[in-house]
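Self-study notes.
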Amino acid sequence: MSCRGRDELRGFEERDHGVFAAKLMEHLAVAAFVIDRSSRVLIWNKALERLTGVPAGEMIGRTDYWRAFYAEQRPCLVDLLLAGDFSRAGDLYEAWSDPDVNPGGLCAENWCLMPRAGRKCYLAFDVGPIFDESGDVIAVVETLRDLTAHKRMEAELEDLAGRDALTSIANRRTFDNRLGEEWRRCRRMAQPLSLLAIDVDYFKQYNDAYGHLQGDECLKRVAGCLQGEALRGGDLAARLGGEEFSIILPQTPNSGALAVAERIRKSLRAARLMHGSSPISQYVTVSIGVVTTTDESAVMELNELVAMADAALYCAKRRGRDCVVSFSEDCCDADRLYLSR
């Protein structure tokens, strides 16, 4: 290396490393900001300006950097690290790392409203302390990555995995998970939970007469009827397989569940879907079994509730189909015995 080259290298090494580090951070491709021990913003880099829509000139020296990410005041991840208090992380973030697993730093993910940018983003945050030569924390740096597209795609895939491919309502997997959640909630809060078991009457004969493609269209129409007539925000309609459907009705007494079931039955009749092979009607009909938790349900198992709904459904079929039957010991004991075989 020439003397001139060595001199230039020596000169570079002797420059103010703090200024160089600040410039490096400012032009870093990853969005980032740095606060001092007093929570004042020291650096607000260009990538973060683009992400939040907030220029550095408005943030340098300020402590209300939360405004760039949220509509209401709340701690950011840098604040938790600076305070050394991670107890609130679970309440503030959708996902976060255990600081014991990642000592000296913290990672989290959350939806942010981004008021100035005018869009909602799902961001991944990583924070770490900056120490002086004595080992004291003099600043904290937070980097941010926009995972919105990935998160939305993940949600779409999860939604598809939980839906019946033919009818687009919930599938058996989603039904089982939700029923378990609602069962635990109703027992914990002593609130009623109703369950509807629904079968399309003489569906095999329908398929034989009209073909499987028309049979698929029939199932879609039935699913649409369930969605259109039965559901509040917390209710769930699901196709369990074949011509079997079910509806979960949280916080619904037996009288309300019976009213929902009867609306479904009448709505499907009013749709006038031709069924020339049905011995009970010229139109497609359904049989519905209804069961509702009672004070004695606290000692029941969830599978017993499902068995009662099925027993009520078979009772409806024994009564001639195209009807609604609520579970009772008198009318359904024989059907429970049949189902248990």
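Second protein, same conventions, sequence then structure:
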Amino acid sequence: MGRATIDDVARLAKVSIKTVSRVLNREKNVRPETRERVERAIKALHYEPNPSARGLAGRRAFVIGLLYDNPSASYVTSIQAGALSACRAAQYELLIHPCSYRDRQLAEDIRRLHRQSKADGFLITPPLSDVESFIADLEANGVPFVLISPGDRSRKSRSVFTNDRPVCAEMVRHLAGLGHRRIAFIKGHPDHKAVGERYLGYRDGLRSCELKLDRELVRQGLNTFESGVSCARELLATTSPPSAIFAANDEMAAGALRAALELGMRLPNELSVAGFDDIPLASQTYPSLTTISQPMGAMAEQASRLLLSQLRAEPENQELIELPSLIRLRESTAPPKARSRRHAGR
């Protein structure tokens, strides 16, 4: 028996070929009972649509491009998994393309990628989602896209993001509730605007707890493990060191744990550490890391659905979508205890 065709599906479901195509493309103007009948026929015949044929029929390539410039393998993997989930459900392919947000030819390179790959649209992750000239170029050329975690939440572009600022304020209140009064913060890379929202949340949290902002307790990190180690060493070497360190991502928080352990500190008794993201490393450190769990996969999946909706010219129900991040308590935070003399003032 030969491979089933779209004609076979239409014949078995007793519908037109055009109706089968609409079902395959997840278009909404199909009655539920008709859609169900077509899907049963597809399953019974083990029909697999030909992407090339679909593209010719609908003038689409059925390909979505995922653009990223992030050194964190965990972040990229989570985003990729979420996007793949939505693409597979819609029978789209996912093209993953690394970029450099510092590249002056970024807009030109993506225009070339768009022409050569014939991608129908793009998912744009941070910090690419903060490059205004690049976004403006896509808009000017009519290229469909959705932004993931843009720093500017006021722009009209379709975007998916999380509650960076409020949840970071909540983390500070949690640490203050444990009894910490000197809470340090390691800031994220200055070019990642959404991560900058986390520092604002830190300041909001201090204010709500009536704790004064001490600039000596703030260090500029670069979103890397190494910068977390370096910043924590500086903080712990001050004459009045913090009893808790809150880092803008988990990799820097893991670096802070490393710096404290190098000093022979007892964690979390002598120092509490918290992070943001909840990457796999957070549950693998010792002690395991209290952090803020960011729904990276769900954000990418939702962004993909937004883009697919745009490609199908469906009504715009919601352009800006916020998915909540939540605090995940583990072993690295506890009420502060007196620090042993051998660590004081190091």
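Instructor comment on the second fold: The chain has a mean pLDDT of 90.
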